[in-house]
M24 family metallopeptidase
Amino acid sequence: MGEQIPTYSIAERDRRWALARDLMDAEGVQALVAYGEHESTGPAQFAPDVYFTNERPGSIVIFAKDADPISLVWSPMHVEDHIEARRRGEACWTEPKNMRVAKHAAGVVQVLREFGLEKAAVGVLGLEPYPPFHFNPIMPYGLWSEVLRELPDATFKPVQLAFSMRTIRLSEEELAVVRHAAGIGEAMANAMAEVARPGVTEAEVYAAGMTESFRLGSVAPGMLLQSGKGYACWGPPAWQYRPQAPRIIEDGDIIQAEVFTSFGMRETQHQVAIQVGAASAETERAAAIARASYEAGLATLRPGNSFGQLVDAMLAPLTAAGGWNVHPMVHTLNPYGPVCGFGGGLTNLPEAEDYGQLFTVPTVGGQLPLLPGMTFAFEPNCVLDGHLVNLGGTVVVGDHGAIELNDVTTRLIRV
């Protein structure tokens, strides 16, 4: 990790602001309201506000006509941080006059009225789903209901899809940030493998990865982690949400994690699979199938193909072997959106009939064309006879094919 730390230029700011105005023109709106989720929310944060401000998350950003954007923040602490950044000579995109402690309905209404937009068409980011974590719109009901009451003659138009299509192809500056994050993800996986031995706890393996992330200057908002000799489940360790002791690692276990690395609000993901001692025959076969799915994805991730074709290619080795996937095989990053379907094998488990209602998540966004500059989380996973293996990392669509940003996590790590 000895390379120079990437940052954003004023040219990147201008590119993004021009994108907002192009979006407004194309959608026939005179303003754009971008709702930003509060800070420290974990993976897949909904943060179009930061995209336009390069500032602390948790604001509402409003582009009104051709004026510079106004940032409505929730706390005086945002302003205090901004003042300190200016004193230090850091690159601040928002002029002080355009930052207001007013992240509420009255603040939104005030800005739109100042620009005479009470009866205008206004584009909104936050009124549509943002999968895979937000299958429901993230805009608070109370806030938005009040805006609608105060501005009954305005027309509010959801524009998330149009925004995503304009931002999903990253600039060279953004790709440099993603590469930096991916390198930290690799270092986290190596740190986890260093401590993964019989007798240590899941918590110690978890801590090793998180420590490396923080040491290298990125934010790892938690991770998913499971361990055992054979299991078909995926999520955070149970001791994260239920009071119980972390599991002790045994010889023959496979420790698997999904590591989220966030640097400068660009995210990479890494699928860690650490085999402690000898692997079972089922684990070896599942690992081979997951790797075949990964390679099929690499061969398909090229301009001219669609996301649906990518999903089909990655699922093919799994289907042929009679396996199933507990989580998506692939989804977009930066921003999130199209996601591979998952969970289809759940209904075949003997315990399935005990549950009131089950639902297989379908593939979303299969029609998305693959274009250079898009980033994807490759996370091929295979369950065979109750044994899960999960591999993968972050991959970029290049001009002529896939560009892998990770190597360590794309194969079973043996210790």
User: Anything to note?
Assistant: The chain is about 35% helix and 20% strand. Residues 275 and 370 are 34 Å apart (CA to CA). The mean pLDDT is 94.
